């Protein structure tokens, strides 16, 4: 029973908090009560004395009021003014002052008119009840101050809570003032030694602190790298520096720690995923080396998880514009810190696709690809592209594609086009080609024992066994990833990509994502199922005919259509004439300025539409395209002209009969109609390539060479043949090689100054002897000054 009582008497944490709150409230009440102490009473006493003196002097007695009744503000102001005008007490004699104090104790004296000799209660006035009430109130003019009460902690009883108080001991105010003065003097003495630093001293101090922190970070990092298994606990110490509180170096130190930890994890992380141990594995007995390895793996995974959580929190605080309670880092500095955190996440996304929490990093990075900040968005998009390019198996790519597809759908297709352009970096096309070659080369079959016994001798069988063992080891080393798994992952990835593309084509045709979708379809069109070809071509043609697309978007539609028709679409009986007409019509809409937008797409379209489909292209169509391309070459930049002329050269080789355009004589009836948008009916056979003669005088030397080569009939050999570096390259490669995007001229411009410097002739040697003598004679003559009069000539002219 005693133990139970003691247990009940122990106060809980909640009760302690409650009682401490009551204690604080009591302290506050005592402090307020103390502030309203002696001075208020003294003023009240002085006011009553002055009122008594004033009533004694005045003719009309002033009735006393109920002290409990509130007075108006105007009345209080008047009383204060009267107090100021009243006679100061220190100017009165001691006897008069004593008399006034005695009279102040008698209310009957105060109500009398001193000028009259009538008795005190001769007349009953209407204010008598006020006087009676005033008489009943106990006097407050006490010499001794009232005792103050201190509120103590209450006592809880069966009846309830009983408040406890005690009298506060009176402390002399003079002593309090002296103590306060002493405290102030001590504080001044303590504060005086602290000297404010100048800006230069502050910078020196900051540099010193920063150097110390850098050395500490470097020491921890080098210890972890040298022996990760033994020093794995130092990762926690290094990670704790992410909470640096010194405002002078907090931002810089946190950035350094983030980057250092990122590099450390890239170095010490194993090349496999660490899985959690089962209960059986934990309970089993193991060697010391294995136990040490397990502890290292557990510590690494936990610290890596905490590090990723810290980076996520930094990015969230920046996005939500939140400040911590410590306010060590400003909102402006948070942006730089968040960018470093995003950069570290991007590095880990690319460097550790096999390790734990990779899907968590993907979920963090994908929304940042659509961030308002352009630098953050580009950083994340570049990281995703890099991941797609280096991912051979396709597991990481599939995870990213799933998250991007869900994000685009969730945002109702209102995202940056750069997000969908990352799909172009997928390695699906190359892997599918590898799959075909592997299907062709069937796996090698080894001989059975019976076959060997029939055909081989004993020694041959021995050599054959060793050879087969070696071949098996080579095959195992070569097949690092399963082809079937790779094909399955890529098929699933491609399905998600096409679902995203088709949703946008169906629901968001006016979206800025359409160019990226069309470009992606053009790249992966050969992998689309044949069942979708008809519907897709109808959608593409509808988009072109709507007239709402830009010329670049319509070119992507044409490119996609012919990619479909050039692959599995050969079996389809579809006439693509409308796409030829559209490309022929769009050629003159190309941008001729510095952007060169669309020229590269046109070169790709011409290659797939005319060169690769040569059997389906008529001569009239080829002539019309060659003529229009030569006209276009006059208007665009040099690199575009070179690419177009290289395509014209390929077409002249592909369609030999097009050399009639180099002749002045017309073939057949009709006149060439350059403004007609139908290549089959513009009568291109009745014109000539006069543009080549203008291009021979072009300022770019490579354009001149191509023009001269085409005028000569594009020969393969001879003086007019092209050099191998020009003839062996494709049109797209030449377009990139001679690009002026870097503001450099290729080939470089030769200097106009000749090597031999002519002798500069100066002075008299410029003139012959007779002329020289004549000049000297005129220079030596003294000029006679005569007055100039123009008026006579003016008069004659007027007449």
From TrEMBL:
Residues 31-91 are annotated as: Disordered. Keywords: Coiled coil, Nucleus. It is found in: Nucleus, Nucleolus. Residues 449-485 form a coiled coil. GO terms for biological process: DNA replication initiation; fat cell differentiation. Residues 40-51 have a biased composition (Basic residues). PANTHER family: NUCLEOLAR COMPLEX PROTEIN 3, NUCLEOLAR COMPLEX PROTEIN 3 HOMOLOG. This is Nucleolar complex protein 3 homolog. The gene is NOC3L.
């Amino acid at each position: 029973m005693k133990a139970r009582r003691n247990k009940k008497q122990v106060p809980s944490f909640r009760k302690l908090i409650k009682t401490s709150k009551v204690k604080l409230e009591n302290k506050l009440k005592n402090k307020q009560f103390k502030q309203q102490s002696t001075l208020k009473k003294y003023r009240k006493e002085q006011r009553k004395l002055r009122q008594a003196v004033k009533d004694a002097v005045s003719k009309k007695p002033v009735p006393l009021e109920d002290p409990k009744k509130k007075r108006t503000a105007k009345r209080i102001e008047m009383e204060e003014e009267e107090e100021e005008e009243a006679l100061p007490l220190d100017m009165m004699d001691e006897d008069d002052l004593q008399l006034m104090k005695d009279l102040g104790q008698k209310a009957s004296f105060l109500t009398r008119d001193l000028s009259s000799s009538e008795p005190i209660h001769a007349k009953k006035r209407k204010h008598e009840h006020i006087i009676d009430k005033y008489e009943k109130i106990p006097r407050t003019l006490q010499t001794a101050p009232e005792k103050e009460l201190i509120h103590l902690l209450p006592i809880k009883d069966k009846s309830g809570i009983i408040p406890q108080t005690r009298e506060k001991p009176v402390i002399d105010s003079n002593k309090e003032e002296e103590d306060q003065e002493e405290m102030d003097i001590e504080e001044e003495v303590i504060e005086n030694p602290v000297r404010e630093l100048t800006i230069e001293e502050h910078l020196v101090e900051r540099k010193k602190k920063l150097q110390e922190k850098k050395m500490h970070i470097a020491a921890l990092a080098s210890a972890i790298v040298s022996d990760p298994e033994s020093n794995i606990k130092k990762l926690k110490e290094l990670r704790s520096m992410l909470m640096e509180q010194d405002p002078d170096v907090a931002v810089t130190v946190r950035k350094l720690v983030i980057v250092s930890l990122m590099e450390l994890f890239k170095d010490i992380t194993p090349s496999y995923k660490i899985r959690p141990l089962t209960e059986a594995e934990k309970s089993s007995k193991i060697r010391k080396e294995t136990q040490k390895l397990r502890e290292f793996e557990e510590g690494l995974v936990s610290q890596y998880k905490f590090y990723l959580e810290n980076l996520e929190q930094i990015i969230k605080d920046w996005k939500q514009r939140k400040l911590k309670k410590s306010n060590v880092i400003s909102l402006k500095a948070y942006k730089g810190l968040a960018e470093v955190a995003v950069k570290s996440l991007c590095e880990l996304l690319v460097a550790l696709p096999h390790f734990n929490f990779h899907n968590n990093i993907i979920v963090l990075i994908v929304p940042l690809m659509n961030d308002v900040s352009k630098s953050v968005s580009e950083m994340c998009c570049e990281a995703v592209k890099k991941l797609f390019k280096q991912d051979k198996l396709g597991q990481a790519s599939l995870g990213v594609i799933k998250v991007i597809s869900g994000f685009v759908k969730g945002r109702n297709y209102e995202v940056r086009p750069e997000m969908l352009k990352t799909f172009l970096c997928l390695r699906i096309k190359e892997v599918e080609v590898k799959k075909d070659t592997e299907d062709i080369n069937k796996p090698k079959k080894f001989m059975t024992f019976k076959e060997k016994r029939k055909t081989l001798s004993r020694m041959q069988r021995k050599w054959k066994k060793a050879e087969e063992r070696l071949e098996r080891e080579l095959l195992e080393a070569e097949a690092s990833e399963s082809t079937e798994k790779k094909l399955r992952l890529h098929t699933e990835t491609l399905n998600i990509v096409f679902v995203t593309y088709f949703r946008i084509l169906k629901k968001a045709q006016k979206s800025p994502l359409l160019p990226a979708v069309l470009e992606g379809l053009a790249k992966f069109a050969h992998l689309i199922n044949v069942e979708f070809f008809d519907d897709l071509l109808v959608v593409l043609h509808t988009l072109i005919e709507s007239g709402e697309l830009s010329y670049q978007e319509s070119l992507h539609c044409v490119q996609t259509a012919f990619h479909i028709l050039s692959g599995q679409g050969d079996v389809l009986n579809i006439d693509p004439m409308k796409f030829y007409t559209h490309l022929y019509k769009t050629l003159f809409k190309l941008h001729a300025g510095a952007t060169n937008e669309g020229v590269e797409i046109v070169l790709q379209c011409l290659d797939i539409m005319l060169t690769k489909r040569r059997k389906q292209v008529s001569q009239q169509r080829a002539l019309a395209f060659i003529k229009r391309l030569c006209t276009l070459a006059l208007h665009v930049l040099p690199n575009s002209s070179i690419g177009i002329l290289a395509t014209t050269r390929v077409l002249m080789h592909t369609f030999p009969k097009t050399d009639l355009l180099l002749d002045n004589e017309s073939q057949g009836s009709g006149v060439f109609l350059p403004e007609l948008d139908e290549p089959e009916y513009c009568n291109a056979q009745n014109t000539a390539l006069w543009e080549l003669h203008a291009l021979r005088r072009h300022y770019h030397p490579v354009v001149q060479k191509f023009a001269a080569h085409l005028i000569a009939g594009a020969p393969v050999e001879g003086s007019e043949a092209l050099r191998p570096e020009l003839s062996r390259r494709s049109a797209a490669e030449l377009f990139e090689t001679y690009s002026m995007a870097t503001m450099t001229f290729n080939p470089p411009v030769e200097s106009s100054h000749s090597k031999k410097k002519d002798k500069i002739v100066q002075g008299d040697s410029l003139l012959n002897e007779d002329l020289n003598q004549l000049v000297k004679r005129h220079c030596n003559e003294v000029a006679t000054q005569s007055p100039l009069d123009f008026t006579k000539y003016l008069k004659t002219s007027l007449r």
